[in-house]
């Protein structure tokens, strides 16, 4: 398995650093000054400047790469461009070279010929492709789960029905567009246990709450359910969240929708239970990591 990011790290990065180091040295900067500007060691600058680092000629000779290197060299040497601004410019360049079958995409497909055999409707390097969007969602959930697994006290917030951390694609319409943990997260002997890696279409309950909130205007893409306590709702409100109550004994979509319409900024939804219904809190957020961070703040 060979990711395009490996091309960026293994070939683009040493090439661009080598070009920038030489460009800045040609403008009269010392090795120490170049090291400070590029955020690398003087010994690394020496290797780049003396050609001791292998560069990719196709990247080095690309007109856009040479243009950006020259512009950044001019700006960095004069102090008109900060290292952070240069980093942003290079990030933009990477995305341009990866998209639309461009240079980095070509290098990746040469490293992984099987990509070229994939059905024509698919482009792994298209940042707007459904696969890339799905992978970003799964990555977000995995990172969120990692935060929760290391959060001391999270197990104590898991309700009897279990918790689930979910996130959805930008154009989510149904539960198949929502990724979560198959089988939910349970408290097993005081330890939050995630049974397996996140997948799409495995969360019925928390996914429906998230989708209902989105359909009624909530600007959120992730959610988790935890046990209900009035003190927890109060603590979340103190942290800046807006809370709204809904009645889960009614149709979830309608009751969540009514709650969001009454409190359009709500990121905490809760229901206090009923006959055969466990009381729960739902924390909503922009992505799974931010939701997990909110839960960690409660532990």
Please explain how this structure is put together:
- It comes from Natrinema halophilum.
- This protein has helices at 4-26, 31-38, 42-49, 57-60, 63-78, 83-98, 103-111, 130-149, 205-215, 230-238, 252-262, 288-298; strands spanning 165-168, 178-180, 186-188, 191-193, 199-200, 222-227, 243-245, 268-271, 280-285.
- It is α+β, with helices and mostly antiparallel strands and 299 residues long.
- It has two domains: 4-117, no CATH class; 130-298, Class II aldolase/adducin N-terminal domain (L-fuculose-1-phosphate Aldolase), CATH 3.40.225.
- Strands 5-2-1-6-9-8-7 form a seven-stranded mixed β-sheet.
- The longest helix has 23 residues, at 4-26.
- The radius of gyration is 25 Å and the shape is elongated.
Keywords, please?
L-fuculose-1-phosphate Aldolase, elongated, two-stranded antiparallel ribbon, 11% strand, single chain, 2 domains, 12 helices, 299 residues
């Amino acid at each position: 398995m060979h990711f395009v990011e490996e091309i960026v790290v293994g070939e683009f990065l040493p090439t661009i650093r080598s070009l920038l180091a030489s460009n800045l040295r040609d403008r009269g900067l010392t090795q120490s000054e170049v090291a400070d500007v590029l955020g690398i060691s003087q010994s690394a600058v020496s290797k780049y400047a003396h050609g001791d680092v292998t560069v990719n000629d196709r990247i080095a000779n690309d007109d856009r790469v040479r243009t950006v290197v020259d512009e950044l060299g001019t700006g960095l040497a004069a102090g008109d461009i900060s290292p952070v601004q240069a980093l942003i410019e290079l990030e933009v360049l990477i995305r341009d070279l990866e998209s639309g079958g461009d240079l980095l995409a070509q290098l990746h497909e040469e490293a992984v010929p099987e990509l070229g055999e994939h059905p024509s409707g698919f482009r792994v390097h298209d940042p707007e492709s459904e696969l890339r969007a799905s992978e970003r969602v799964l990555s977000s959930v995995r990172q969120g789960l990692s935060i929760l697994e290391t959060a001391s006290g999270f197990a104590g917030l898991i309700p009897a029905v279990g918790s689930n951390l979910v996130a959805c694609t930008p154009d989510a319409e149904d539960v198949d567009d929502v990724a979560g943990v198959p089988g939910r997260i349970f408290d097993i002997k005081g330890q939050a246990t995630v049974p397996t890696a996140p997948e799409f279409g495995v969360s019925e309950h928390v996914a429906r709450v998230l989708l209902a909130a989105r359909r009624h205007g909530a600007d959120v893409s992730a959610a988790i359910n935890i046990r209900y306590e009035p003190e927890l709702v109060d603590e979340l409100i103190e942290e800046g969240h807006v809370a709204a109550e809904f009645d889960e004994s009614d149709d979830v979509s309608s009751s969540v929708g009514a709650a969001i319409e009454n409190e359009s900024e709500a990121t905490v939804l809760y229901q206090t239970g009923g006959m055969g219904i466990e009381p729960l809190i739902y924390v909503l957020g922009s992505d799974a990591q931010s939701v997990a961070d909110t839960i960690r703040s409660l532990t």
